[in-house]
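Hi R.,

Here's the input for the flavin mononucleotide complex you asked about:
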Amino acid sequence: MIDPTERKGHPDLSLPEAEKRGVYHAIYTRRDIRREFLPDPVPEEVLIRLLKAAHHAPSVGFMQPWNFILIENPAVRQELKRVVDKERKAAAIVFESPRSEKFLSLKVEAILDAPVLIGVTIDPAREGPFVLGRLSDPDTDVYSASCAIMNLWLAARAEGIGMGWVTIFRREDVQGILNLPYHVKPIGLLCLGYVREFPQRPMLETEEWAYRQPLSKHVFVDGWGRQEGPFWDSISKDLDKKDVWPWER
Ligand SMILES: Cc1cc2nc3c(=O)[nH]c(=O)nc-3n(C[C@H](O)[C@H](O)[C@H](O)COP(=O)(O)O)c2cc1C
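And here is the predicted structure with flavin mononucleotide in place:
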């Protein structure tokens, strides 16, 4: 851990306190929103701000593999809803009863309810076959576009706009509906709109489907599963402590 006194003599580049708080506030109170969108339209200038926030995400080799397809036509929405429903039913098969019934009772998308619907795609061929940094891991385009979606998600939270990231669909179905070239992969349908509130806990937690795990289970030192030594002893005490930010759940 860096002792703050060690930074003496270096410029303090941390954000002003209120702005720093704002960043953590957005992180801790962002939720995946799938219900109770308000009908109020999202003004175009706000939508543009969100898209710009997404476009300022990092990307491997600066390849910017993303595209954002704004869905305007209600018929296209209906088609997307149809293929998401189809896949939702297919996905339920992997669970045994009663979990499969429970899964089917969960709301996992808001394709028709959200005022704004955006399809996000990645183009793995963007910037040619030899993108800096991509040779060693072809998935880096997915990582990059996921960063863009996360930027958009947090910016939306800052604007009071809820967002649900929907991935329950067959790639080929969405490729057909949105006329995507064969090599372009859809990685999400983003449902956005103003909401009355951001629930304190993930919906899957309130629905007793899954729970946030203790952070200490997921942190190792110097290798898989290693939780020992002076650094671990020092840091592990505070990993599960919830007293830094009031919004943490
Ligand atoms: C890559 C990705 C794909 C997701 N796909 C879906 C989805 O198809 N349907 C859904 O209801 N939620 C989806 N989610 C949302 C998660 O269920 C949600 O993030 C998680 O339950 C934690 O809740 P929170 O986002 O409110 O903290 C997705 C999240 C991520 C990161």
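One thing worth noting: The radius of gyration is 21 Å.

Cheers,
M.
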